[in-house]
């Protein structure tokens, strides 16, 4: 006790000396300064270190004793920059600096949002003191141990009924006991968890010992991962800031996932039942994979031999590429044809058996024909198929051509109505002109003059017309004849061809003009600036045939320049679409 009193007197003298040196009326410090209240300021002197989170940040300036509470008042000043500020929940404690009895104060800044004002006092509830080791050792020496025994003998009467106060004193007197009590309380709440932790830790340590090589590799990879994470710490911090919102939005999804997992329980049970079969399959797969290696080696050998063939085929591929550059136009035309064949609006006749009764498309008609043909061989036995033929004889059995059809119509006006098997109102070369003709049937009224001119040309030995059945001969003489023809004649016929294309409204007129220019080697005017064809009152309007009698539709007359002899045939070839 005398030592404690001596310590307090020394502290008071030191405080008075400090007050005398600084002067009562002097100007206060301009650096952050605070006062901390301690139960015991043993070993703390003016000028000792003040640490913040274990780092030296300032010095102790003054020590006093509160006459009312008998607590030590220690004033300190923060002289180092970069430590931020102390918060309302700051805690401070005295600690030994070394074994020779030096002490310092260590403060933890706290985490409260409110900042501790400059010059504020840290209450004793937020401070702790360390019991000096030499005081504990003094209890073991005489006469202190006899005195302690007397105190303990008489302690019962002095502290009777004050167990709570004594407990509080003991807790505040020893920070280690206080912290130990808190740790034991937390462990008591987690005893089952600790039990399970010990059990799991034993299993985990056993596995780690058995896989120490992998553990070492994991440590190295963890180091590399930590280094990579440090480089992306700004992105990671931003991700952590967004994590609470993500977790809130994830709750409904996790709930739905839980329901889905519960619903998948039967499937997982079935999968568990099939696990043995799956294992058997994987075991059997190994011989198959081993045998496949031989095939892969053979394929590699074949690829080595096939590489020269592929290289040799490159010129052929290049020629195919050049040949298919014009394929888009052909594909577009084919697409138009196929779309037309697959369009039900273009059905030839309505049929109640078709979808909506609108009739069959072209493709459906082809399939129907194939079906009907297949029914001709639908009789078969164990020996093979038998062809089913239905023979009949009537007035419609004989084949007819336009001439014989006219003769039959003269005999029997109802012959056409009874025997006509047509798929539409038009019959090429019978009721309408033949579309495969070269266009000679569209000659104008100058047919007689053209015939005379053709006769005179046949008499000339150098104007022999090429055979119409040999288009290759016509093509071979195109260049010679075009040189002999008058350029005005070629230009006039090409313009007539463009006019007919504009009137028909079919095809690309610009492409036709370019094709004619390439064939004839002349320049043609813009198709849009050509005047329309003059009307021809002599050309009758084609009409659809009636069933009886057979209509005689004359060939339409299209104005054109004379087109006879070898010259006419060559011009027909040149001006063909």
Poorly predicted tracts of residues: 1-11, 13-28, 439-476, 535-566
Distance between the termini: 129 Å
| Helix content class | 40-55%
Please state the overall shape, judged from the principal axes of the Cα atoms.
elongated
Adjacency order of strands in the biggest sheet: 7-1-4-3-2-6-5-8
Give Rg in angstroms.
Answer: 57 Å
* Percentage of residues in DSSP E strands: 5-15%
The SS-based structural class is: alpha/beta
Give a quick account of the main beta sheet: strands, pairing sense, barrel closure: 8 strands, mixed
Mean pLDDT: 75
Q: Total strand count, please?
A: 10
Q: Give the number of helices.
A: 21
Key features of this structure:
577 residues; alpha/beta; 8-stranded mixed β-sheet; two-stranded antiparallel sheet; 53% helix; 9% strand; elongated; disordered N terminus
Describe the structure concisely for a colleague:
With 577 residues, this protein is of the alpha/beta class. Helix content is 53%, strand content 9%.
Structure notes:
- This protein is α/β, with parallel strands linked by helices and 577 residues long.
- Among the domains are: 2-138, no CATH class; 144-189, no CATH class; 444-574, no CATH class.
- It has helices at residues 2-22, 133-138, 144-158, 163-173, 175-189, 191-210, 212-231, 233-263, 265-273, 275-312, 314-323, 327-341, 362-374, 402-411, 415-419, 447-459, 471-476, 478-484, 487-504, 509-520, 565-574, and strands at 33-38, 49-52, 55-65, 72-78, 91-96, 103-108, 121-122, 127-128, 379-381, 384-386.
- Helix 6 crosses helix 7 (212-231) and helix 19 (487-504) packs antiparallel against helix 20 (509-520).
- The longest helix is centred in the middle third of the chain and has 38 residues, at 275-312.
- The chain is elongated.
- It starts with a helix and ends with a helix.
- The model is unreliable at 1-11, 13-28, 439-476 and 535-566 (pLDDT under 50).
């Amino acid at each position: 006790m005398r030592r404690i009193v001596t310590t307090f007197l020394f502290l008071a003298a030191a405080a008075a000396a400090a007050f005398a040196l600084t002067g009562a009326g002097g100007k206060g410090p301009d650096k952050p300064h605070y006062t901390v209240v301690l139960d015991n300021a043993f070993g703390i002197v003016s000028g000792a270190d003040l640490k913040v989170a274990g780092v030296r940040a300032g010095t102790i300036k003054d020590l006093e004793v509160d006459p009312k509470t008998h607590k030590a008042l220690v004033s300190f000043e923060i002289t180092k920059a970069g430590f931020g500020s102390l918060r309302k929940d700051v805690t401070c404690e005295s600690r030994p600096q070394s074994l020779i009895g030096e002490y310092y104060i260590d403060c933890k800044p706290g985490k409260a949002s409110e900042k501790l004002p400059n010059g504020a006092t840290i209450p004793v509830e937020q401070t702790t003191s360390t019991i000096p080791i030499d005081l504990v050792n003094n209890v073991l020496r005489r006469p202190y141990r006899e005195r302690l025994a007397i105190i303990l003998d008489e302690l019962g009467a002095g502290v009777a009924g004050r167990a709570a106060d004594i407990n509080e004193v003991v807790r505040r007197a020893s920070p280690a006991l206080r912290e130990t009590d808190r740790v034991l309380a937390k462990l008591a709440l987690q005893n089952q968890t600790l039990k399970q932790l010990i059990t799991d830790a034993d299993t985990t340590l056993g596995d780690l010992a058995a896989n120490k090589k992998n553990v070492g590799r994991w440590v190295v990879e963890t180091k590399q991962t930590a280094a990579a994470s440090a480089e992306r710490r700004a992105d990671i911090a931003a991700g952590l800031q967004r994590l609470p919102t993500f977790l809130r939005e994830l709750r409904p999804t996790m709930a739905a996932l839980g329901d889905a997992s519960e619903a998948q329980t039967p499937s997982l049970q079935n999968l568990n039942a099939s696990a043995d079969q799956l294992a058997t399959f994987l075991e059997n797969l190994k011989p198959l994979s081993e045998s496949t290696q031989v095939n892969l080696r053979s394929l590699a050998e074949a690829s080595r031999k096939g590489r020269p063939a592929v290289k040799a085929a490159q010129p052929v591929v290049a020629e195919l590429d050049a040949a298919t550059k014009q394929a888009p136009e052909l594909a577009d035309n084919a697409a138009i044809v196929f779309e037309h064949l697959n369009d039900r609006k273009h059905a030839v006749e309505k049929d109640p058996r078709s979808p909506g009764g609108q009739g069959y498309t072209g493709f459906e008609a082809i399939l129907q024909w194939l079906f009907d043909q297949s029914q001709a061989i639908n009789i078969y036995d164990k020996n093979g198929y038998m062809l089913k033929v239905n023979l009949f004889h009537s007035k419609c059995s004989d084949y007819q051509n336009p001439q014989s059809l006219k003769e039959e119509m003269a005999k029997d006006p109802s012959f056409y109505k009874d025997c006509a098997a047509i798929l539409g109102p038009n019959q090429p070369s019978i009721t309408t002109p033949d579309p495969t003709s070269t266009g000679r049937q569209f000659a104008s009224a100058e047919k007689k003059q053209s015939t005379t001119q053709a006769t005179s040309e046949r008499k000339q030995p150098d104007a022999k017309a090429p055979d119409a059945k040999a288009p290759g001969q016509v093509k071979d003489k195109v260049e010679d004849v075009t040189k002999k023809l008058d350029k005005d004649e070629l230009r006039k016929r090409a313009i007539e061809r463009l006019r007919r294309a504009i009137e028909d409204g079919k095809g690309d007129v610009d492409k036709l003009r370019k094709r004619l220019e390439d064939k004839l080697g002349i320049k043609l005017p813009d198709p849009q600036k050509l005047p329309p064809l003059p009307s021809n009152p002599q050309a009758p309007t084609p009409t659809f045939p009636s069933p009886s009698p057979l209509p005689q539709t004359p060939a339409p007359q299209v104005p054109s320049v004379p087109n006879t002899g070898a010259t006419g045939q060559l011009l027909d070839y040149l001006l063909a679409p």
